[in-house]
Specification:
The chain is of the alpha+beta class. Helices cover 37% and strands 15% of the residues. The protein has helices at residues 24-28, 44-56, 62-71, 73-80, 90-99, 102-122, and strands at residues 3-4, 22-23, 141-148, 158-165, 171-177.
Length: 182
Amino acid sequence: MDYTTLTVKKSSVTNEESLPLFSLYEALQELPDPRRAQGKRYELALVLCLLVLAKLVGQTSLCGATEWLRHRSTTLAQRFGLRHQRMPCQMTYCNVLAVIDAERLDAILSAFFLRWEAQSRCGEEPSRLLTPTGKVDHRHVAIDGKALRATSNEAHPVHQLSCYEVTTGRVLWHCNVQEKTQ
């Protein structure tokens, strides 16, 4: 199987077996687009894919991601098969992030990157949890809590409890709790 972050246009590939079976762009197309059709220039999957690419190269702010994408507009436009070389502006990213279903996006991205990680570690092995002796490995999970102090103007901060798989870093679940406990 070939897992890649960018799609390949079918017209540019002569052998069908060399097409990627699963790409980030295809995974993000599963997310419904809540925006109105009027004035929409960019597909939701494209906007989110561009943001993920910027995040993967280390951009930590929306402004930085927008600039990074603009500097690579020619290459990205070719890879995504866009008619124009302009990239979305910062407000487009901001508006998209404000209206999408964050939980569904989180599920889609975590499933994609979990498969990507499993593919890179195990190759063609049928199960990433099986050891060479055929026994199932136990997954190491960790539970951690954080106080998110700058999230609201209230006197008491929001406390968030998260459980994640240590090997892949995938968050299995997280929830807000009323107050910090031992």
